[in-house]
Design a protein that fits this description.
With about 325 residues, the protein is an alpha/beta fold. Helix content is about 45%, strand content about 15%. The longest helix is centred in the C-terminal third of the chain and has 18 residues.
């Protein structure tokens, strides 16, 4: 990847229970340049936990990769940012977008949209501790703080504090009455607000997120903003990233076939199972590989019928490829 093409041009959103290290390795077999994000890791889990390796470990193949942190203490976030940098992450990302009740009870996530000065302090504290980029993933607002003027004020504060990149989910979060799933679909998308942000903050890299599913949509957004982040579409249809390196990063490498991805996963599964875990921890992430293709249902059934059985291992993929 050339230095003229930023790593954030295309990225996969941090998603709890989904973007673990197995899913990230799988996506990396399909795209070498897409920026990947961890699941959110709370400052408490890092600072009070006994096993940071469990939360922070990743393989070198996953770079470029960003660590997403959840918390509301500038001091704790800065300490965790430094730990993340020492682990080899390429970026520290602050979660100001998650609307779940559990996150709200800890006074972080999307509810921090109501406290731009505190978020700015969080950014500033992290910037003082690390040399890698510090970025913020946030909504366009929350109920009660949902106007464009509120959004502009928020972004102005984090930019002034030194944020290197703003990743904007183009929906407000409704903090009472909607589930996290509903918050991903019910509040209307306001892409124009994100475009306007880019017009008014031309020096701040801005990535748009929310409801984006196709390359046609990606290309359209990239005429208005710097980057596009995909969430559920990346999980449901991971082979969407098959052309990302060539389309958006100028790669000349041959594109991998689905069968080649599965062959490379076999050795990964074998090595992983020698150390820990069960095969379904990995295979659950790859059920969408044949999304939209003839035989997709049979592929999913082949894996799901076998991956929870006693002693299941990489031979499931070997047997599938022999069919």
């Amino acid at each position: 990847m050339t230095s003229s093409v930023p790593s954030y041009r295309i990225s996969v959103a941090p998603m709890m229970d989904w973007t673990d290290r197995h899913f990230r390795f799988f996506i990396r077999l399909i795209s070498k340049h897409t920026l990947l994000y961890t699941e959110m890791v709370t400052t408490g889990a890092i600072l009070r936990g006994k096993d940071n390796h469990r939360y922070l470990d990743f393989s070198k193949e996953e770079n470029p990769i960003a660590l997403q942190l959840g918390g509301d203490s500038p001091v704790a976030l800065a300490e965790c940012a430094k730990i993340g940098e020492d682990y080899g992450y390429d970026e520290i990302n602050l979660n100001v977008g998650c609307p779940s009740d559990r996150v709200q009870s800890g006074s972080f996530g999307a509810c921090l949209m109501k406290e731009p000065d505190l978020v700015a302090e969080m950014v500033s504290a992290c910037k003082a501790k690390v040399k890698i980029p510090v970025t913020v993933k946030h909504r366009i607002g929350v109920n009660g703080k949902e106007t464009y003027e509120d959004l502009h004020n928020f972004v102005s504060k984090i930019k002034e504090a030194g944020a290197d990149h703003s990743i904007v989910h183009a929906r407000i979060a409704i903090l009472e009455g909607l589930s996290p799933k509903e918050n991903r679909t019910v509040p209307p998308l306001r892409y124009e607000d994100v475009y306007r942000l880019k017009d008014e903050f031309p020096d701040l890299p801005i990535t748009i997120n929310g409801g984006i599913k196709t390359h046609a949509e990606i290309k359209e957004h990239l005429t208005k903003v710097d980057g596009v982040m995909l969430g559920r579409a990346a999980y449901d249809n991971p082979f969407l990233f098959h052309e990302v390196d060539q389309l958006y990063y100028g790669s000349k490498e041959n594109l991998p076939l689905r069968e080649e991805v599965l062959k490379e996963l076999i050795s990964y599964i074998r090595l992983t199972l020698e150390k820990e875990g069960k095969v379904h921890h990995i295979l659950r992430h790859i059920l969408g590989l044949y999304f939209g293709e003839k035989g997709a249902r049979e592929y999913r059934k082949f894996l799901t019928d076998r991956m929870h059985t006693t002693g299941a291992n990489e031979s499931i993929l070997e047997d599938y490829l022999k069919r």
